[in-house]
Specification:
alpha+beta; three-stranded antiparallel sheet
């Protein structure tokens, strides 16, 4: 299998889809990638894509979960390594090395939730900042995506 990862950040989207308590599984970004984005790919590419099991961290249940995805964005672990959020999964250290090359000058989403605010009941998702570091912010923010898929 070959994993294809976007070379540059792609179109801005919000994680939130009208709800503030969401995970990767029900995020607006995932819905867009599995629908509109996938349908815009050439038919030959669509036919070559194979579903894979991807992990994502759900901060509300404090669990690392898995789902089947055809198109996705990287997780915190895939970009930054370590075990701080997801406790399993691949690490794309060659694609996202720990240096300035991880910076694209824009913020881009990761599929990992960070924390749950009990006072405002809003989920936060991790993202890679315009300088290549990792932070989190609310689901209503528009950030870029780095679409990935396997063939």
């Amino acid at each position: 299998a070959i994993t294809w990862i976007s070379k540059t950040p792609y179109m801005k989207r919000r994680m939130g889809n009208g709800k503030s308590q969401i995970t990767w599984l029900d995020s607006n970004v995932r819905t867009y990638l599995r629908g509109t984005f996938f349908n815009r790919l050439p038919k030959a590419v669509q036919d070559a894509i194979v579903p894979v099991k991807k992990t994502y961290y759900d901060c509300y249940t404090n669990a690392t979960l898995t789902c089947d995805d055809t198109v996705w964005i990287p997780s915190y672990r895939e970009v930054f390594g370590g075990d701080s959020y997801e406790n399993s999964g691949v690490i794309y250290s060659d694609r996202f090395p720990n240096d300035s090359s991880r910076s694209y000058g824009v913020d881009w989403w990761l599929r990992t939730t960070k924390s749950f605010s009990f006072t405002t009941t809003i989920y936060y998702f991790q993202y890679v900042t315009d300088d290549g570091s990792g932070l989190s912010h609310g689901v209503t923010v528009y950030d870029y995506m780095m679409p990935c898929f396997c063939t």
